[in-house]
Amino acid sequence: MNAKQERERIFHNAAFTDNRRGTAVNGIYDLLHDSRTFYEGFIREHAPGARMLEFGCGASAMGSLFGATAEEVVGIDISDVAVRNATLLAQKNDLRATYHLMDAENLEFPDRSFDLICSAAILHHLDLRKAYSQIARTLKPGGHAIFMEPLAYNPLINLYRRMTPHLRTPDEHPLTVEDLRLAGDYFGSVEVRYYTFTTLLSLTVRRFPRLFTQSRDLLEDFDETLFRLAPWIRRYAWQVVIVLSKPNPA
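Now predict its structure.
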């Protein structure tokens, strides 16, 4: 394990032990309604009968939701605490899921092993050339990979990041336009969906749950229209969902 991986392991072991990160970010992550809905819906559609690999075994992992419909769920994480917790949950709920301590940049699986690969907020912790290469190598030719990730350019989110450095590791890097384009070197099909721009304004009424939900939903619809009519604004979205297919391991 190299120095970067050890830093990530230590940080996430602590985070999974005391839930410090979950407590701090739950409010702002409530904004991610449309992106999460599409992400989970895609997995729900493609999981039945699939051999599925998920990067990350934390509280938001999909294995616990779809372990009963997929042929097999395999989860990996750099955190041994996350792997232990996920294994206990799978045993308790009798899921067809196994979890392994593993580096996503060096997957220990044969070529063309999985029909579906997914993760939420993991890619931006990785060396993307290594990660994309490993995903392309282990994805079956007709398979799909889907990832929900943060972008690097939104000024309000960047201010929040500067104010809360203790909530992230020094090695993570929100994705850039170049990072998204890089996926095209490894996959014949790259679809990027953009989410959460003006939706951030709904945080001003976060203390009023009903008003917050109504304003968030309206602003999400507005963002969808805005991104369609003014594509140059997409780079200022907070979140993207990336769907990859037609892997090209070479």
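The two ends are 26 Å apart (CA to CA).
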